[in-house]
Amino acid sequence: MTLAKNHLVKSVQKSAELPKTFSTRAVQSLLEIIIKTLESGEGVMISGFGKFSVRDKSERRGRNPKTGERMMLRSRRLVTFKCSPILRDKINGRGG
Fold this sequence. Notes:
Layout: H1 5-16, H2 20-39, E1 44-46, E2 50-57, E3 60-63, E4 70-73, E5 76-83, H3 85-91
Antiparallel strand pairs: 1-2, 2-5, 3-4
Helix pairs in contact: 1-2
């Protein structure tokens, strides 16, 4: 199951014993801060979780997989994520 934003709000509400409106604002504010930081080209590192980074991909040659037609793919920016060793160990059952 994918963790949707409303599930995240409910989890914050339950674990912090906060009203739903406050939990919703807290989650939304956190997401907006992360988005604005990534839009500016900076990374976001959350200790014990991982790092979100913005990477530039230059223009390159590609092809349409449906038609086989060659084309130029425009340059773009990507968000990448690298998990922390702590998170990686927990996912693999090696951490507490």
